[in-house]
User: What shape does this take?
Amino acid sequence: MLKNIQDEIIRLKKETDTAILAHSYQSPAVLEIADETGDSFALSTVATKLPQKNIIVCGVRFMAETVKVLSPEKRVFLASPTAACPMAMMIKPEEIVEYKKAHPDTVVVAYVNTTTAIKAVCDVCVTSSSAVSIVSKIDKPVLFVPDKNLGTFIKKNFPDKDITLWNGCCPVHNSVTEEEVIEVKKLYPDAKIAMHPELPDEVLKYADYIGATSGIIKFAESCDDDVIVGTEKSISDYLSIRYPDRAFPVMSKKLICPDMRITNLGDVLRTLKGNGFEVDVLEDVRVNAKKAIDKMIELG
Ligand code: 13P
Ligand code: SF4
Assistant: This one.
C-alpha cells in the first residue's frame, strides 16, 4: 500500500513537472519520494538549481516561503498547510523596525526560521550551519533574532562582539534540561553527544559536536561510536536505520516537533492532484527578503 502511494507520487511528479524537497526531519516514507533532502540551508538554495516548474516543500512554512522568495517564477506548495515553526512567530516586523530606528548602527541578523515579513526588514539571514561564519564577518553591533539559544551559542564564539539577543526560542529544543542529558549519559557512557544549537546553553556544554541537522548526521557518519542525538528524534530514527549495529538514542523524549511531523504521503499526493496549498508572498516583501537571503548566500 505504502509502495503504491509512493509509485503514484513518483508518476505524478513527472507528469506535473514537480520536484519534492523534504527537510531531514521528515518521515522515511516522505524522504524516499523526495528529489532533494537536507537541512534548512540546503533546502533554501537547492530549488533555484532545479529545472521543474513546481516545487512541493515537505517541512514548515518558512522553508516553502524561502524557496518562493528565491524562485518566484516557480509555483511553490507547502505539503501540509498548517505546518509552521512556532519560533518564526516569536517576533513581529514592527518590533525590528522600532529597534533599528533606535539603533541605526546595528546589523539585524535573522535566523532563517522567520517569516518572510521579518526577513524583509532584516539585514542578513543565517541558518544554524552558517550563523557563526556569517556573524564573524560583521564588524558592527548585531541584533540576533529570534532564537536566544542559537544567539547565545554565536555570542560564545565571539566574546568581544556587541551582540544583543531576542527572547525567542524553539519550544521543542528549548524544553530539554541538563538533568535529561546527565541521565542519558549515564545510560550510554561511551557514546558521543551531537547537539543542535537551538538547545539551551546549559545543555550544549555537554556536547562533543554542535551543528545543524546536516552536521549532526555527518558527525555521526564520521565516527564508529554510538551517538546521543540532541535534535529532533527523526534524526535518531534515520541514523538507527542506516547503522543498525550502533545506538543513536535521542537525548530527550520531548525532542519531537509536531509541525515537522505533520506531513504525510497523503498531503503530497493531494498536492500533486491539484488540491495543494500554494505559497505566495507580496512582491515588495519578497524583494526585500531576498536581499537578506542573498547576503546570507554571499557571506555564508
Ligand atoms: P536546520 O537548520 O538544522 O535544518 O534546522 C531547522 C530547524 O527547524 C531545527 O529545528
Ligand atoms: Fe521550529 Fe523547533 Fe520545529 Fe525546528 S524543531 S521547526 S525550530 S519548532
